[in-house]
Specification:
By secondary structure, the protein is α+β, with helices and mostly antiparallel strands. The protein has 12 helices and 10 strands.
Length: 361
């Protein structure tokens, strides 16, 4: 990457730190050159400001928030499809015998594609924290299945945490194990990423440094190595919609693996490239595939230069990735924009500005 462009990127990040878009940020850009990836990677800011400054370093972990959907839940589902333990057209009624009639025909594919009819979000944590921990997942399953649908299945695409919470519970019902254990064993360990993509509650995490994302609403505890998403935190830190933490290099390596499989340059032992490519196809006229966002014609966080077939995902904490199969490149941005409050949306202007700087010819 040329010196002039790097200077513009540096200026954008330093200005954004001063404007409190985030207190910590890491960016990585990779482009395939025919033999391997040419990469650019930079770190800015501090993992925390109190009780003392801690400068962000390359091995520090970010709360990836909803990137968990694309980087955990989707590949685990692909592995179950590969083993024929589950199919995209498997329905909620096939899995949960107590499922209400109005939801029995909702399919796994519709949950993955955000067109199941479920609403976007509910604050279940207010009740969950009053329930014994061992009963919380049973409680949230009943609450979601009893929700009133906002539309008929397959009619509109509405990004929904509820759908991916259900997908996480489906994975756990089929495998008999929590999604963190399943993903570590069959998805990350074969790629040697088990130390870079983690659920902190399930490991000895005292040796890691985590980027702060604020304070817990009910315990006032500092959220450092504790997932920011309230529903996920109340569920024990492991769920289908959130809970994954990762280093910048770990997220980029997994995205490179996805792109390499997309282009048939690599394999994964858990699922085929054919299955992955099916998952990355646009669903109907929406801006969604089965679990990944696509470039929209107006106001996309990807900016102006990603090609039409590009896929990505955003995380509420200020994280994102975009993968472009035509230009053979990837951008990963990890931040903690919520450290200045959940209503701090300055990241919306920052993301496309950064992507345009990186992607412009």
């Amino acid at each position: 990457m040329d010196k002039k462009r790097i200077e513009k990127i540096e200026k954008l990040f330093l200005t954004s730190l001063n404007n409190k878009v985030f207190s910590a940020a890491g960016v990585s850009f990779s482009r395939w050159n025919g033999e391997g990836y040419n990469s650019f990677r930079k770190y800015y800011g501090f993992t925390r400001k109190e009780p003392f400054d801690k400068k962000l370093e390359k091995g520090d972990f970010f709360d990836l928030a909803s990137l968990s959907k694309a980087l955990v839940t989707v590949p685990v589902l692909l592995a179950l499809f590969e083993k024929k333990q589950l199919k995209p057209d498997t329905t909620l009624g096939d899995i949960f015998f107590s499922c209400p009639e109005d939801k029995r025909r909702i399919s796994v594919k519709e949950l993955m594609s955000h067109n199941s009819g479920f609403v976007s979000h509910r604050e279940y944590f207010n009740e969950l924290i009053r329930i014994p921990e061992q009963n919380r997942k049973e409680y949230i399953l009943k609450q979601i299945l009893d929700e009133k649908l906002q539309s008929q299945k397959g009619v509109i695409h509405c990004y929904s945490d509820l759908g991916f919470i259900l997908l996480g519970l489906i994975i756990e019902k089929i495998t008999g194990k929590e999604i963190d254990e399943v993903s570590q064993k069959i998805i990350y360990t074969p790629l040697e990423l088990q130390k870079d993509l983690i659920f902190p509650n399930s490991i000895e995490n005292h040796t890691h440094t985590y980027v702060d994302t604020g304070n817990c609403l009910w315990s006032k505890e500092r959220l450092s190595g504790l997932v920011h998403d309230d529903n996920c935190r109340a569920m024990g830190g492991v769920a289908g919609h959130a809970g994954l933490f990762g280093t910048l290099s770990g997220v980029m390596k997994f995205c490179e693996q996805l792109l390499d499989q997309w282009k048939d340059r690599a394999q994964h032992p858990a699922y085929s490239n054919r299955l992955l490519r099916e998952t990355l196809k646009r669903v109907g006229e929406s801006t969604w595939t089965m679990g990944f966002n696509m470039v929209s014609s107006r106001g996309s966080s990807s900016g102006k230069y990603f090609s039409e077939k590009s896929v990505g995902h955003l995380g509420f904490t200020g994280t994102s990735f975009w993968i472009d199969p035509e230009k053979d490149c990837i951008v990963v941005l990890l931040t903690n924009r919520v450290c200045y409050g959940v209503d701090n949306w300055k990241i919306k202007d920052f993301r496309p500005a950064l992507h345009d700087l990186l992607m412009e010819d």
